[in-house]
Structure to design on (498 residues):
């Protein structure tokens, strides 16, 4: 069995657990990737804005240093304006400290190259190796341009003399964005690693979680496989100590299995009982036929006796078949007779009158406590059938005292019908069994009286099918009391309350 289960399980291409794990990992990947992208964008944009500001500051600082001249810039002037001391120490030789520190910062930064050109585009001063060729500019601009392997920031502006208000040279600042790219790459690497970690962790977590959460499905699967291999197997889904949909499913599944197996057992028991019951009449008829066949054909006495006996048995079989049909129908009343209603008093009175008429040797007493019409949700013929079965039994099993009491009473939402006899009674042991199919206390005697042992089981099924109940109180030698309890139809309760 185990190997069969296992082989079935391995047939899945992707088990539910793997799907769950993949789903969780994919979800985590998408969420984290989206989040990282937004953070990444914000962070790098900020960094770039800062670098742009640095370039801008450098442009302004150097421009402030040079634009107080009235003539076109020359190399000599520049050497005087930007002293090496400035580059190294940031010496305070200019009016504003900010400019001084900015220019120092700008010029000394390794990834920032400051270049000054004269009006013809001739290079006058440079702090580093040139990577972008000079182009004349008409106004100040800072742009991202392609420079070698990656983009760089290029700030350009004309130097306009504050004295003559005319162009005296050009200024160009290149920012290689080394720090920016360094941070960018580091961030990319960290994000990538964290992303991989998150995906693996969430996938594993998803798998572990699904393993625990979906364990009942494995149990249900194993139980189902065992049951389909052997429908009588009493294996069940193990009890789950948790309260969720799957534990409910497990419990429901077990209940369904119990019910199905009960049906299967009942079914086979029924077939067994029926064949057992039919065996006797069939054997009797066969015996008589064989006897007739051998020597009875010419003996009118044997012929008549055998035919009588055979006819009696066929009648018994006919009754048996009818009763079995009734029994099987009684099991389906809930489906077929859902909205039937009956006036209890009317039917009880009718059965009471009929029995009085059929059995004049009996004294029938009816104690009717109902003061008004009481309606019960049961099909009229079925209610009558139940009463007839119980009254018939009362008559059948009364020996000396031929008296039968019927009673009718109600509570707010129930009505009770009692059928009491003072006959042979039923022992404590048999009381629990008389409602079973084909059960007879004294088989031979009951047979003689035409009983098949189906009457009480039909009555019980019918009453229970209409949500009522039958109870029995009995004492051997003193008689029996059967009580039918049925619910009262709701409108009837309402009208009573009014
Ligand atoms: P049957 O057709 O044999 O009467 P029932 O199902 O009606 O079958 O009854 C089952 C058995 O219960 C009977 O065989 C009988 O032994 C016992 N029984 C039923 N009703 C009574 C009763 N009122 N008094 C004594 N015994 C009873």
């Amino acid at each position: 069995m185990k190997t069969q289960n296992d082989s079935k399980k391995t047939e899945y291409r992707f088990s539910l657990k793997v799907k769950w794990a993949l789903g969780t990992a994919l979800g985590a990947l998408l969420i984290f990737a989206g989040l990282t992208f937004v953070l990444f964008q914000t962070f790098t944009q900020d960094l770039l804005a800062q670098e742009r500001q640095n370039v801008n500051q450098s442009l302004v600082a150097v421009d402030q240093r040079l634009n107080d001249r009235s003539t076109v810039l020359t190399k000599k002037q520049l050497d005087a304006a930007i002293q090496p001391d400035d580059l190294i120490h940031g010496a305070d030789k200019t009016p504003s400290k900010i400019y001084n520190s900015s220019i120092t910062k700008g010029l000394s930064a390794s990834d920032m190259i400051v270049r000054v050109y004269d009006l013809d585009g001739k290079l006058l001063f440079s702090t580093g190796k040139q990577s972008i060729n000079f182009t004349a500019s008409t106004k100040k601009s800072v742009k991202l341009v392609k420079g070698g392997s990656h983009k760089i920031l290029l700030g350009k502006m004309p130097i306009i003399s504050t004295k003559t208000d005319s162009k005296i040279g050009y200024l160009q600042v290149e920012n290689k964005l080394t720090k920016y790219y360094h941070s960018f790459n580091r961030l990319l690497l960290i994000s990538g690693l964290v992303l991989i970690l998150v995906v693996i962790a969430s996938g594993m977590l998803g798998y572990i979680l699904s393993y625990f959460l979906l364990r009942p499905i494995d149990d249900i699967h194993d139980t189902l496989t065992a049951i389909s291999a052997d429908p009588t197997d009493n294996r069940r889904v193990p009890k789950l100590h948790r309260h969720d949909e799957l534990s409910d499913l497990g419990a429901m599944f077990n209940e369904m299995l119990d019910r199905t197996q009960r049906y299967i057992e009942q079914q086979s028991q029924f077939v067994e009982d029926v064949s057992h019951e039919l065996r006797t009449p069939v054997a009797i008829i066969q015996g008589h036929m064989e006897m007739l066949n051998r020597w009875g054909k010419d003996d009118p006495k044997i012929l008549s006796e055998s035919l009588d006996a055979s006819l009696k048995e066929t009648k018994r079989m006919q009754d048996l078949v009818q009763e079995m049909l009734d029994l099987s129908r009684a099991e389906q009343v809930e489906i077929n007779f859902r909205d039937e209603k009956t006036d209890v008093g009317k039917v009880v009175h009718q059965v009471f009158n009929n029995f009085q008429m059929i059995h004049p040797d009996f004294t029938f007493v009816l104690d009717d406590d109902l003061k008004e019409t009481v309606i019960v949700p049961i099909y009229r013929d079925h209610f009558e059938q139940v009463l007839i079965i119980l009254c018939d039994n009362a008559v059948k099993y009364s020996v000396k005292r031929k008296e039968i009491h019927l009673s009718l009473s109600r509570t707010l939402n129930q009505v009770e019908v009692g059928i009491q006899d003072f006959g042979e009674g039923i022992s404590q042991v048999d009381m629990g069994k008389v409602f079973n199919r084909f059960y007879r206390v004294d088989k031979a005697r009951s047979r003689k009286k035409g009983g098949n042992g189906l009457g009480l089981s039909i009555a019980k099924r019918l009453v229970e099918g209409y949500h009522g109940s039958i109870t029995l109180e009995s004492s051997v030698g003193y008689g029996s009391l059967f009580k039918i309890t049925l619910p009262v139809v709701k409108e009837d309760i309402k009208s009573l309350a009014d």
Summary: Residues 220-276 form one domain. Confidence is low (pLDDT under 50) at residues 1-8, 84-102.
